[in-house]
C-alpha cells in the first residue's frame, strides 16, 4: 500500500483522536498532512507536534495566536477559520480527508474536498442527512469515493463487498438501544443529561451520545444509508441489538443475510476506511464467541423514542426537510445538555420546527445553508415555549 497523506477534520474530537491512534500504529503507511479543531487549541498543538503535521487549522480565530506561537518552533504551518480548512483540503498534498467534525459544520469542508476529487472517509453523518442527494451527485461527478466510517455503515459496506452487484432486499441497521432501552416513558421523561451521557457500550462525544439516547442517531443513519447505498427508504430496517456485537446486516434477494461483527471499537471502521481496500493489523480486542453468550434483538419502540419516526418522516418528505430536522435537533440537544429543556423536549422542538420552517422540494446547496440557519433560528425562537 502506497503511503497516504491524511487530513483529519475535527482531530481533537472522539473520532479524530481514535483516527490518530490508528495512524500511530501505522506511521509507515500514513502521513498527517492537516489537522483541524474548533476550540481545543492545546490538544491540537500536541497532536501537530507528535504527528509532525504539515498544516493545522484552529477554526476559532480568537485562538490563532495561541496555536501559532506554540507551533512556531516546529514545521507546522498554522491557519485560522473555516475558509482555511476548505482551501487546504483542496490542495494537491492530500490523498484522503477524514471528516469528523460534529454536526452541520462539516458540510462545507466536505463539499470542498469532494469537489477537489479527494477520497472521503465520512464520519460526519449530518453531511448526507442535510444534503445527501447533492453531495453524492458531486462525488460521482468529481470521482471522489466516499467511504463510511460510522460503524453501522462500514459494516454494510463490508457486507456489500462480499456480493458485488447483488440485489439488496433489506438493510438492517443495528442499534444498542442507548441508556434508556429498558426505561418506561415516564422514567425517560425525567432523565438528566448526565444519565443520557452514560452510554452502555460506546464512547462518543456529547452530541452523538445524546442522539443515541433519543435514537435520533439511528434516524440520521437511516437517511445516511439511503444516500450512501442508493437504497429505497422502505428497505432500511432498524433492529435493537443491546450487545452491539453485530454492527449491521444486509439481506439479499435470495434471503441470505451477511453481518459484520466486532467489539464496540470505532478504530476498526476508521482503519478500514483509511486503509481501504486493504485490511491492516489493529491492536484491538478479539471476539471470543464461546464467551459471548446470547445475542438478542428487538424492535425499536417509537412511542418511547419518537425521533425515529421524525427521521423517517423527514426522509419521506425529502427536499430540505432532513436539513430542517437536523438543524432543530442540534439546537435541541445543546439546550438539553445545558438543562434548558427536558429529554422529550428534544423531539418536541424538532417536530415543531419541521412544521414551521418553509419546505423546499429541490434545494441546491445555497438553499441548504439558508435552511440550516433558518431552522436553527426558528428552534431558538420556539425554545422558550418548550422550556
TrEMBL record:
Keywords (A to Z) from UniProt: Isoprene biosynthesis, Magnesium, Manganese, Metal-binding, NADP, Oxidoreductase
All residue ranges annotated as the 1-deoxy-D-xylulose 5-phosphate reductoisomerase C-terminal domain in the record: 146-229
A Gene Ontology biological process term: isopentenyl diphosphate biosynthetic process, methylerythritol 4-phosphate pathway involved in terpenoid biosynthetic process
SUPFAM superfamilies: 1-deoxy-D-xylulose-5-phosphate reductoisomerase, C-terminal domain, Glyceraldehyde-3-phosphate dehydrogenase-like, C-terminal domain, NAD(P)-binding Rossmann-fold domains
Ranges where the DXP reductoisomerase C-terminal domain occurs: 261-375
Binding-site positions, Mn(2+): 150, 152, 221
Cofactor(s) needed for function: Mg(2+); Mn(2+)
Span of domain 1-deoxy-D-xylulose 5-phosphate reductoisomerase N-terminal: 6-132
Family: Belongs to the DXR family.
Protein name listed in UniProt: 1-deoxy-D-xylulose 5-phosphate reductoisomerase
Native species: Candidatus Cryptobacteroides gallistercoris
